[in-house]
Amino acid sequence: MWQALAGFAVRGPVQGALLAFSTLLLSVVFPPLVVISNALIALIWLRLGPVKGLICVGIALIAGTLIASFSGNPVIPATLMLSFWLPVVLMAYLLRRTVSLNLAMLAGAGLALIGVMVTYLVVDDPSQSWEVVVQQIRAQIEAATQSGSDTTRAEEWLSNAGTWMTGFSASTQYVVAVLSLLLARVWQARMFNPGGLQKEFHGLRYGLAAGAIGLVILAASVFLDIELLQNLAIVVIVALAFQGLAVLHALAAKLGMHVLVLAGIYAFLVMLAPTSVKVLGMLGLVDTWIDFRSRVNVQKRD
C-alpha cells in the first residue's frame, strides 16, 4: 500500500503535496503517520530534486494555511508543518547532493544540537517551560493510579523530567527525521535501485571528527553539572545509537544470521529501553575508532 502511494507521490509535486499534507493531517488521529508524511516529502526531494521539492512543500503549506484559516489560526499549522518537514528536507537534500548517508544523518544531528542550544539561549528557564507538559502527564498517571496500575517508575521518571525534556524533544524529532529519510530511501531503492539502502546503512560510520566531538560532549555532561550539556548528550547518544544499529545489521549480514535472530535482538533492545539506546550509542562511539565491521572481515579470512 505505502509503496503504491510512494509511486504516486513521485509523479509530481502536486501529487506529493497532496499525500504529504493528508498523512500529516491524519497523524493527529494516528501519530505514526508523521513518519509517512515526512518520508513522502523526503522522497520528492530525493527523486525529483530541490526545485520540485520546494514546490511540493509550498503547495502543502498553502493548502494547510487555507484550511486552517477557517478555524481562525492559519499560522500554527504552517509552523508545525515546517517543524516536521525542515529536518528531513535538509537531510534528503544533502543525501541527494552527496550520496552520503553519513553526512545526511550528521547534518540532522547537528540541527538537533543547534535547536537545543538555541532553546537555552532564547528561553530563560527551559526546564520550567516544560512544566505544563509534565503536569499533564502526571495527571494521566494519577488517573492510572486510581485504576490500580503501578506508576512508581513513571513518577521517578517525572521527578526531574523538565531538566532533560528539551534534549528528549530534539532527539525525538531527529529520530522521526532519520526514520522518515530511511523509509524514503527504502521506497526509492525498491523502485529504482534494489539493495542500495542496505549497503548505505551497513556502512554508516560518522568518522573520527564527529566521534571526537560526541565524546567531548558526553564526557563534559558526566563531569560537569550543566543542564545544557546533559540535553546535548541525549542528542549525541541517540545519533550514535544509529551507528550502533548499523554495526549490528552489518555484523548480522556478514555472519549470515537469520532474520529472526535480528528480530530477537530488536525485541531485546525494546524491552531494555532506554538503557539499550545508551548501549547502542556507546557501541557506535567505540566503533568510530575500532571499526568492528572491518575486523569481522579479517577474522573470516583467517
Please provide a written account of the structure.
The protein is mostly helical. It has a domain at 1-123 and 167-191. The chain is 83% helix and 0% strand. The chain contains 16 helices and no strands. Helix 3 packs antiparallel against helix 4. The chain is globular, with a radius of gyration of 21 Å.
Helix content: over 70%
Rg over alpha carbons? 21 Å
Task: Give the assembly state of these chains.
Answer: single chain
The string of secondary-structure elements, in order, is: HHHHHHHHHHHHHHHH
Task: Please report the total strand number as a whole number.
Answer: 0
Strand content: under 5%
What value does the average pLDDT take?
82
- Which structural class is indicated by helix and strand composition? mainly alpha
Coarse morphology: globular
N- and C-termini, Cα separation:
46 Å
Low-pLDDT stretches are 298-302
Q: How many helix segments? A: 16
The description of the largest β-sheet is: none
